[in-house]
Amino acid sequence: MKKTTINNILMGIIVVLCISICFLIFCIAKRPRYVETSESESAVIAEMTESISTAAQTPESSGLPNPTDADNSNTEYNGSPSPVQGKTSTRVNIRDRATEDAKVLDTVEEGTTFEIVEILDNGWTHILYEGVDAYISSAYVIIINE
């Protein structure tokens, strides 16, 4: 083969590779960042909020022994209900404040577990993530235990 023919073939391959790389970069940039959850998940979360606050107020409703009950005198009770655990329903950002403009501490995958400190009225959940106070949008939180 002639030298010019080989050069033309190699230039064609380089052009095709450059176009492919540009296409892949475009696809990555336009990929969806979050998956919308269904309304039924949000309804479950709102329903569970009331039971969390109730469980924190009365030991009987949380399933923990009552410290004033004579029958449970052999059982230790530290005065606080067991921590509420949650997990993410999709890939989501963990933030340092309860706002979309807050600094992103981490982005976690679906199913990541954490301790719920408080469910706020503004649509955010205060969590303890890797020992640090953080916030996650309540729309992406699934409560594991009460």
Describe this structure in words.
The chain is an alpha+beta fold and 146 residues long. 35% of the residues lie in helices and 25% in strands. A 5-stranded antiparallel sheet has the order 6-5-4-1-7. It has a two-stranded antiparallel sheet with strand order 2-3. A hairpin with an 8-residue loop joins strand 2 and strand 3 (104-108).
Features:
146 residues, alpha+beta, five-stranded antiparallel beta sheet, two-stranded antiparallel sheet, 3 helices, 7 strands, rod-shaped
**Secondary structure: helix percent:** 25-40%
| String of helices and strands | HHHEEEEEEE
Shape: rod-shaped
Q: Profile the largest sheet.
A: 5 strands, antiparallel
- Distance from first to last alpha carbon: 75 Å
Find the count of extended strands (DSSP E, 2+ residues).
7
Number of continuous helical runs: 3
Q: What proportion strand?
A: 15-25%
